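step=predict obj=DUF7912 domain-containing protein n=263
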Amino acid sequence: EGRRREAPAGGVVAHARGLAARARAAGKGKVYLGADDEDASLEGEEPFFEDDNFGEDEEEGFDLAALEDDEELPGVHLGDAAWAPAALACVERVLKDDIEGDLTIFSLGVDEARRALALTIDKPSDKWGAPSVDEIVAVARVLNEALDVEAEAGRVPAETAAAVSSPGAERAVTLPEELSRFGDMPMQLTFDDAESGTTLTQIMAYVPPEEDTQEVGDDATWKLAEVKANRGEKNRPMTRKQRNLRWQIAFGDITKANLHLDV
């Protein structure tokens, strides 16, 4: 019996093997395309669910849900698979040589048991770092073709498959490394508050230092962001006290940071 998956908010996913062709999610949801979908361009089309088998795995060895558990965690996570470095080299080569644009690795996970990769791609030239649907589809197809070549050469297991996604509008942010890139956008921060001795989660705005400096220290100043979640009932403006609040937070005390989409 097919398993129906609700489309999670965040990025766009194209899995080139084993998923129902042309099952698409609306809004901020995820998009899944099958390997044999001849329509690679999705621009201007209405999103839809084609059938009740949305997200059904045709190959029992591939579990997309398991791969997505840590997809928001940036970085490369190869695990213990002996073939993982070859898979990483393949991904890097495809993004550098075979795909147009400035796409880079946001995160990469390897599932040795299922012979699967979970790749999330970043687009530095985009304000939100979000590649287009067409770019994600192109990467999924080209990468899976390249993995077939690697498998024939014995560098990765046969039928190794890749799921490709975008980080999503509320992507994880690495601080302080990405502060210069996303510092003018509201972020949801989870941090250890030294004054109260508790862990707080607030939607914050970065307050740049008054001096013009290119160096980032060990901490930064933050204030409440002017977003709906920080306003009062009936969407009233923040109070003067709220606007004047400041937090001096060490980057080491920030346990999680994500962009915040004000909707």
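step=describe
The CA atoms of residues 224 and 240 lie 11 Å apart.
step=end
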